[in-house]
Amino acid sequence: MIRVLLVDDHPVVREGMRGMLGAEADLAVVGDAASGPEAVARTAALRPDVVLMDLRMPGGDGVEATERISAEFPDSHVLVLTTYDTDADILRAVEAGATGYLLKDTPRAELAEAVRAAARGETVLSGGVAGALLTGMRRRSAPESAALSSREAQVLRLAADGRTNAAIASALHISPTTVKTHLARAYEKLGVSDRTAAVTQAIRRGLLPDE
What we know:
The protein is an alpha/beta fold and 211 residues long. It is 54% helix and 14% strand. It folds into 2 domains: 2-140, 3-Layer(aba) Sandwich (Rossmann fold); 144-204, Arc Repressor Mutant, subunit A.
């Protein structure tokens, strides 16, 4: 019998999952939790084979709970079940030690089979999650020198010289609005929120072209 712990801050969702999994002869829901910290405590007490984990809960982050459970109770495999399918969410969960990542629209039969696979320690990814995970990992592993487009680097080079948006636009024969767009994209890629920080980061990474 595979023992399952349900973790979700919505009681209706937990009851629905309990009903779905309880209909399977080889699956038994042994408990539930409404937050990350509670999930860790319940895992310690119940030692389930699989923890079906939501990610975002008011009472405590599911990713942090996943990391703790994976480190402290390696025999309890965490299977994320959430509505969030962004690259960042998927990467955080997998890096925290989640065995799998499913979306809440997963059909009942697939969910049950995923729980069985997770109990065996197998990786389980639903639908487009695998592609999103691969994309996210490629972005993480991409060299920093490839972070900016050539035009974004040119705009930052001129910004580093102290030129205004209008002056940059004139030098590159583009509109001031286009300059703003290139700067905004550069900020996002460099993880900053203003021109000075962007220039500093770009210089540190060696991304600015020679004058």
